[in-house]
Amino acid sequence: MNVAPIIVSPSQAWDGNDGPWSTFALGFGTPPQFVRVLVSTTCPQPWAVDPLGCTTTDPSNCPYRRGNQFYKNLSSTWQDKGLYELDEELNLGFTGNGNFGLDSITLGYPGSSSVTINHQLLATIATKDFYLATWGIAPRATNLTRPGQNPVTFAAEDAYPSLLSILKQENKIPSISYGYTAGARHRLKQVPASLTLGGYDASRFVSSNLTFSFADDNSRDLVVGIQSISVVGSSETLLPTPILSFVDATVSHIWLPLEACQAFERVFGITFDAASSLYLVNETKHQDLLARNATLVFTIGANTVSSPTVNISLPYAAFDLQLTDAYPNVSNATRYFPLRRAANDTQYTLGRCFLQETTNTTNNSPSSLPKPSTSRLSSGIIAAVVVDPIIILAVLGIALIIFWQRKRRATKQIDRYDSATAPSVAASVSGEHELHDEQLPPPELHDFAKDPLEMDGGIAAVEINAREATVHEMD
Q1: How confident is the model at residue 155 (pLDDT cuts 50, 70, 90)?
Q2: pLDDT at position 110
Q3: pLDDT band at 78 (very low <50, low <70, confident <90, very high)
Q4: Helices (H) and strands (E) in the chain, counts
Q5: Which parts of 108-189 fold into alpha helices (H)?
């Protein structure tokens, strides 16, 4: 039986303390408690805001502003696993702990096509570094390691597959792949986010025909080369030297080298605010930037020098964002430019702001690559994974696929909030991702399990409170 990609409808709300971001709905627990979440392309688990995330010093509507809270004690299926340090965005200075556990997850608000996954690893968070709940769609498994534990000998029950992997294992999606764009409130009559699991919505972009292989480091795997940043109608470059940058929907901002930020300051007249580490924009400057209505062009390649490349155009409106009074070190609603000064090359990041005008299609399981069925890989299994594709390629005569052994990250248990780094455990995942300039013709869904560039036939998509669409399979 053919399995269709799942189209997840947005919540229709625009949330966040650093911009209006289009969110989705997830139901946590039994019965489901629905919260609004932002997509994370880096995190493998869903996170919900814990009741401890709103204190007596917060506004009375804090739970709503944070997308609503998940009360573990009201879920009949919650299985507690303990308190662990969150292992996301540490390089950007984000911190926090999560109360991890197993529970049911329902995709989207109640409806005839709702999909529920049981026994899913998730976390509740209180930290405001991640202000909204998070829907992690990264495919890697999570190891819950205890202080002093050798990760090579961790118990099998401490390794938990990602939500995306479980959907594939339970035959609810055709492949471990997705298509995502963050949505853009400034466009047309507010264009919401788009998320397709097991495929992608080809109507949201003009294909770049440019594919990027995953980087070795699975904490920064979706890496592209930013070869230049320019302003339409201007000869001045905003990126003095090409860089490799991580594409990450978890964070809102764009992190660039200091020299690039200083070029932005010269061209746009924006000023760095040391207290917030942001570029705040007063009303006079805001009107000036609106009148100028500049368009920025990011030239993206697989690395910093080679072709082909794709140009991603972002209007000034994509950078015209506003902080709320819930943002750290900000007392009132304040306009800002979502550019951050990176301390080093590990912080170079294209965040959600960039994905307003870009669709990210990511395929973690090309059909020609066999996938191991166990959560831990012995050297024999790894060898089989590497050798078999070579045999398949030789027999079928298809294009060479670059394959890397990647590492699964370990989530560290908190022992009196000890933040000692735990070693990672070897695992194997492979794939590719693409970036496309965002467009808005009628919906057309594709299954990544076959060749993403050719279409033949169609099957009805599984829709979760979504618009009508047709899924096309590929040869």
Answers
A1: low
A2: 83
A3: very high
A4: 5, 37
A5: 163-169
Residue 61, C-beta contacts closer than 8 angstroms, at least 6 positions apart:
none
**Coil, strand, or helix at residue 22?**
strand
Of 195-209, 265-279, 459-473, give the lowest mean pLDDT range. 459-473
332 burial class (0-12, 13-18, 19+ CB within 10 angstroms)? Answer: exposed
**Pure H helices in 39-181:** 62-65, 163-169
* pLDDT of amino acid 434: 65
pLDDT band at 395 (very low <50, low <70, confident <90, very high): very low
pLDDT band at 387 (very low <50, low <70, confident <90, very high): very low
Q: How many whole angstroms separate alpha carbon 315 and alpha carbon 295?
A: 4
The residue assigned the tokens 């919505």 is 201
Question: What would the mean pLDDT of 311-329 be, rounded to a whole number?
Answer: 93
- Own/partner pairs for 151-156, CB < 8 Å, 24+ apart? 151/410, 151/422, 151/423, 151/424, 151/425, 152/425, 154/410, 154/425, 156/375, 156/376
Tell me the C-alpha distance between 147 and 250, whole Å.
Answer: 27
Question: 42: closest CA among 171, 298, 214?
Answer: 214
Q: Give the torsion sign (CA, 465, 51, 182, 18).
A: positive
Ramachandran category for residue 248: left, alpha or beta (phi over 0 → left; psi -120 to 50 → alpha): beta
Closest residue by Cα to residue 33 from 68, 60, 6: 68
Q: What's the whole-number average pLDDT of the chain? A: 79
DSSP per-residue string spanning 409-460: PEEEBPSSS--PPPPPEEE----EEEEEEE--SS--EEETTS-TT-----EE
Write down the pLDDT at residue 431.
57
What DSSP element (H or E) covers 381? helix 379-396
Tokens of 207: 């294909």
pLDDT reading at 453 higher than 70: no
**Helix or strand holding residue 286 (H, E):** helix 283-292
Q: Which of these, 307, 250, 256, 267, lies nearest to 125 by C-alpha position? A: 250
Burial class (CB in 10 A: 0-12, 13-18, 19+), 335: middle
Q: How far is 219 from 136, CA to CA, in rounded Å?
A: 13
In the three-class reduction of DSSP (H, G, I as helix; E, B as strand; rest coil), residue 166 is classed as helix
Instruction: Please report, in angstroms and rounded to a whole number, the separation of the first and last CA atoms in the chain.
Output: 16
The pTM (predicted TM-score) of the whole model is 0.80
H or E stretch at 321? strand 321-323
Token readout for 431 is 């794939």
- What would the mean pLDDT of 377-395 be, rounded to a whole number? 25
